[in-house]
């Protein structure tokens, strides 16, 4: 069992700040058994705050059994328990804690896409309740050997990396995140009222509208770590091409060298040098999967390397990421989909970003 005191600090940060638990909240914690030390501390903190915590532990291997064994009807089935959590609970915390990130590597991508499509209604409800502040949530990662292997780090290096990026090694982590919030708000203020973004880089020249959209300051509320500002592009506005620097990971599979061409807001051409079949299956999931639901700037200086986990990779300072599929209603996005797939593009070497025709960032650095 991991007894690192930073686990307690992270649990306090997640419950008191990221999720913002209140007395009387119905609160579910989702994790794998390996994350028990963090689950226990979050459970303890929830009780201290007067919430009503429930733990949903998922055994490793169940997803593989499901995708290999389920009938078509079972792939299409939506659990009423999952529906209840999304529709009725006040708060939820998902602790990423895989012990084998490649467990689904041999699964037919079409089966994964079909099961994900069945959750479209649930994802829409989740995002709508989030926008109305009826559902507070958080996502964090527990250091496992599988994640360390993916990131090409030792277990100790990964733990230090996670805790450092989450600022739990600071004397007052909540105060540290409030400083981040103030710094990022200045970026949000600069972007407010901008109408168009253009991304230019190697094999990339993509333009889309953000007119009338709201920018969100990801300051460690919900996602931990925070470290991005994001919005929802106008659904029919994206035109041009983009080549993603880093592999896009979905269900443990790396979709490498993704290239997309947009016209009228839709992906009209797509290719990948590895796992192209998965890319095509996910794009075919529904109409919204071919449109952009999110655009964001990564701003976390503590995330210094690619880990193959998008919770961290999308925060790398100097990068941008765009999500195919569902957009967050809080940004003004109306794009609906069962998919929300973030892909990271590194613009730190030869990249330029223009806002309303004026240079806004160059080589990963914002221009004053």
From TrEMBL:
Molecular function via GO: aminopeptidase activity; metal ion binding; metallopeptidase activity
Gene Ontology biological process terms from the UniProt entry: proteolysis
Keyword annotations: Aminopeptidase, Hydrolase, Metal-binding, Metalloprotease, Protease
Cofactor: Co(2+); Mg(2+); Zn(2+)
Superkingdom in the source lineage: Bacteria
Annotated transmembrane regions: none
InterPro entries: M29_Exopeptidase (IPR052170), M29_N-terminal (IPR035097), Peptidase_M29 (IPR000787)
SUPFAM superfamilies for the chain: Thermophilic metalloprotease-like (SSF144052)
Pfam families for the chain: Peptidase_M29
Homology family: Belongs to the peptidase M29 family.
Full protein name: Aminopeptidase
Highest classification ranks of the organism: Bacteria, Pseudomonadati, Thermomicrobiota, Thermomicrobia, Thermomicrobiales
